[in-house]
User: Fold this.
Amino acid sequence: MVDLASAAAAIREGEVVVYPTETVYGLAADALSPGAVERVFAVKGRSREKPISLAVPDVAAAAEYTRPTAREQRFMRAFLPGPVTVLVEARETVPDVLTAGGDQVGVRVPDHPTALALLREVAPLTATSANVSGNPSARRADDVDGAVREASAAVIGGGELPGTESTVVDVAEDTIHRRGARADEIAAWLDRSGE
Assistant:
């Protein structure tokens, strides 16, 4: 097992680390460092036109990097931590490379003790699956693609993960962009709280 302090130190140096979440294994890098975010895109072979989400240790921390409305805050308190990505307005400190030049960023608070412990050491982190784009997401550390593993400073084990991706939701638009875990509950919440 990789020491979390060592993994956090590698992230502070601009490196990429594989970490477990409550969905799949993810790639962690400093979400505020354009160079580190570029490294994540390179490791994944991901199009720069596809934004990457950021992970924080709790809902309160999200406000440091985003401008959530009152309704978005209520939603986040209801569903985070959990397997949900919430699109909210990004603050100026969030680099354009992370948001693909858009004004929103996806926020994650992973409901996994190892992910939260890492986020308490260093945050915000990138929140994207630890796989080459287009390939299946890894549910076990041993399943992480060799190229991703080789490009990472560390792989933090967390056992076998559920494998269901997070639901991506734009609360302001009442839109679910990707149905994943808890999608039906989220749809019901959006219906109940419509303004």
In short: Strands lie at 17-20, 25-28, 53-55, 84-89, 104-108, 125-129, 154-155, 167-170, 175-178. The chain has one domain: 4-192. The longest helix spans residues 34-44. The chain is about 30% helix and 20% strand.
